[in-house]
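task queued by scheduler; priority normal; single chain, no ligands, no partner chains; default sampling; output format set to structure tokens
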Amino acid sequence: MSHTYEKLSSNKAKLTIVVPAEQFDEAMNKAYLKVRGKLNVPGFRKGKAPRKVIENMYGEGVFYDDALDIIFPEAYSAAVEAEGLKVVDRPDVNVETIGAGQDLTFTCEVFVRPDVELGQYKGLEVEVDKQVVTDEMIDARIKQDQQKASRTVDVDDRAVENGDTVNLDYAGSVDGVAFAGGTAEKQTLVIGSNTFIPGFEEQMIGMQIGEEKDLNVTFPEQYHSEELAGKAAVFHVKVNGITVTEMPELDDDFAADVSDFTTFAEYKESIVKELNERAEKNNDVTVENALVEKAVENATIDVPEAMITEQTQYILREMEMRMMYQGLRMEDYLKYTGQTIEQLQEGYRGEAEKRVRIELTLEAIRKAEGIEPTEEEVEAQIAQQAERMGQKVEEFKDSLTEEQRGYLTDSAAVQKVVALLKADAKVTEKAAE
């Protein structure tokens, strides 16, 4: 077999493949052996009619498709490999010459990973929002620890107040008829959390333990249940109990309870340090993203539709996996949001194209700069991934396939490409409003 290669555009190639007549005749014979049992030939049992008899009856072309199917995979793969093509879609095949006793010639037009015409990627200028740690952020972080150290206390000497946690029974009805999901016992509700229908929690303020009361509410017009949307309803409720959450004082004892520090001042200082380090990392990522996006913006790429479609499918698979961990099926999500899978795909198309452009641009810069990670850098990448997955480095390393190790090698290379972008970039930082 032989082939010729023609570059049609930055993302499309044409292969013309020629298969010698004797090799095509071998494929025709294999096709005959494969098909003969399916054809009816008068005077012969199924599968016993000679090839010539079948060809005379049905025409020589009766075996062409099967013969081409036999030859195509090996011939096409060999040509793609010889030219080093990175194919991203199925080829468009066109047969030019075919027949017994002559060479088989066919062409394959196929989309490939496109050429990237890089623009400026060194000395880029970007402006980014700088995350600044505020007093409000520090207080909110301390409040998290304060809430973890809080305790729940029963209240039995007063009525329900805003902020209380109430244990209640309720039974809802519309026009005197109970509805599905409207009845429950021993449920907990934080008054003021706006968890229930508007007006429900406000009407419970002032109720005593053991008291029963009818609450009149109206379901929102955009309620998820169409049967109840906009309907007036009555909930008969009973207060079973009231509890409040007591927060510890922000003092040295609190610091000793929630940290390794003995004074509140030391504890707060550690919180400030933690938030500043986090902000620094976030700012670094923001800068990297801005530089990569700028490099992509400066590059010219004709992205094949097949690459965008494939990336869209990958995004949706990621999304479906996250849903599964939360106990939600894609079918249910589509139902709740009123979308079709086609609408969801279209919604993520822009993100998919952005991902593809980033990948191609970083790959092109890596090639242009001859960037390859050292063995030490690959090992560091493996160690980081093992840590993220909570595994011992050596055990994780031994479990890697060649494909997985290649992925981590590429990740290490991408880090070096990003470091190159940052090396002489001009970054203007502005405080976030």
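post-processing summary
- The mean pLDDT is 93.
- The first helix runs from residue 21 to 35.
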